[in-house]
## 1
Amino acid sequence: MMHRISTLLMVCALMAGSAASAVEMAPDTLVKNTAQEVLAIIKQDKDIQSGNSHKVLELVEAKVLPHFAFARMAQLAVGRHWPKASPAQQQTLIQEFRTLLVRTYSGSLTSYKDQTIDYRPAKLVPGDTDVTVKTVVNQPGGLPIPIDYSLEKGADGWKVYDVSVDGVSLVTNYRSSFGAEIQRKGIDGLIKILADKNRREAKSGDTAVTAGKK
């Protein structure tokens, strides 16, 4: 399970591109055409390759986040408990979930070596606003990993609202653990758990960068 999850952000980064491109391009074309841009950055940036967490987070903020529908992702991850949360709690959940994903998976960007990616044409007809883009990550010496992106189209273009790695859905995976926490400690309990984890990850990242500069 860990090898699947550790791959997530790396392949999510392949969705990068300008906002204009996201509006104009078909979702599968967007995935394919912009992959090389991010891979080139990873290959050329020695700081990212050496694990500089600040540099990695900057790349994620600039290239990945504009193409993800975090509000819908958080709502899907919380599931049936979402209506129980107040508007303020919902906004906090969205922010903490966003931070969780960024900090959890940004480290996998540094693990990119010689993987190649195959792209499958999306089955898209005029008027479609929801589509799955299928890709396969080929790992030297390892089994290929299928990665499916679920995207929805809104006024600002196509955005990812779920990623499935080898058949395992990101939001479904979180829904199980989030639901258990809400049953035990309520919405505020889940928020606290997420916030505490994000603070620990931030502190750990800052420590790693400081150590690397010595």
Note: Residues 170-213 form the longest helix (44 residues).
## 2
Amino acid sequence: MKRLLGLFAIILSVSLLLTSGSMAGKSVLDEIMEAKTIVVSTDANYAPQSFLNDKGELEGFDISVAKEVAKRLGVKVKFVTPDWDLITAGKWGKRWDVSIGSMTPTKERKNALLFTLPYYSSPAQFAIHKDNTDIKTISDLAGKTIGIASETTNERYLQKDLAIEDVTIVYQDWEPGELKTYPTDSNHIEDLALGDGLRLDAIFSSRQTIAESIRSGCGNGCPIKMLGEAPYYEPLSFALDKSRANSQTLVDKLNEIIKSMNEDGTLEKLSLQFYQTNLIPKL
């Protein structure tokens, strides 16, 4: 009897080890395929990358890219819209699987996140109120109040603390008077549109976001104008939670999809549709 009990205990232990090993070895890609859904975090107020249309549906470049990724994976896509600082902080707790939200893979972010190959690139851009006549060059922004979205590369650039691999950053030789941070870019664009110097003297965002605001009117004719050339261009990638075990298989699969979308012209087509220019890098 004791021998049988001992044998049973050994079999049970081996079984538990095999089961736990199987569970521990399940990849994020496997979990997504089993769920038949990929959960994507993005911004609901970041046109033309992602925004709510008149029907209350998400639309934009990043939304179209995410839908195409899901299609090529053979799964459905579900969108969630957490605050940007929660996305960049990592430790998502499986609330979403991937961020497809025009994120730059900075050195700091790589402490918490994994990144794919870049799927497009973005020029940074200053803008001022169209009624302003004193600010003629970027250097004239010295001592001015500038609006930026918080926890973004643009904020890091103006703080002179931005590090992007394989990108040479040349900082301005002046200092802003005040950096006013906002939850997202549309908020500081709205404040600048209220009047020249009323709340802001200038804003710093992506060129395509400012161009879309000018085109669409940003609620009140959008009386703003771009200032100077792009201080830098940044590669933009999908991001995954580094703290989530077995994520590399999903990174590898997403890289395959990005390459295929690059090679067959899908990304270029979407770039032309939403940005009216080709922002897709050659891989």
Note: The first strand starts at residue 37 and ends at 41.
## 3
Amino acid sequence: MIEQIQVEVTKRLLQINTIKIQPSNPFTWASGWKSPIYCDNRKILSYPEERTFIRDQFVKVIREKYPQAEVIAGVATGAIAHGVLVAQELGFPFIYVRSKPKDHGLENLIEGDMKTGQKVVVIEDLVSTGISSLKAADAITNFGGEVLGMVAIFTYNFPVARKNFEEAGLELTALSRYQKLIDLALESGDITEDQVESLNKWRESPETWGK
């Protein structure tokens, strides 16, 4: 099932230019890493058909993999809207996790109501190293929730991310992933065979690529 979902989701992300691939003119991430690819999943929200399709795939995965789920959590800020759509479709409570506690009022790190022991599925829009995603999952655990797993729109599938999720004992399921993106972009002519090698080298060692 997930293979078919990844193909269709990736095609749709490419169609609406959510993902840009520029090996010869790389982007610079906040971390300072050079990247031949940029993924902006916030654009999905502007396209009703794609937005609904992504929601439905999240729902399908959650119902199949986590039938015991009780709460949907979104990771701020990119996954909040998608998480709300999923929670609404499932009829579940929704919470979201801030990157850091508010500096005023109740100083919440987690917004919304969740009962101790409730089973939570975390929604992410994008996973790179996995550090911020796993930090959000830890916050939910510390808040008294039981995190069943995480479902993301896209993952770069970096080796460091796979290692981080494995060490955390948390399962990540992505509706689209980097290698599927490269395969489809090559098939459609968006990239060339010559560019594929560079793109694959970047994924294996993004911290040193382009230096």
Note: The first helix runs from residue 2 to 15.
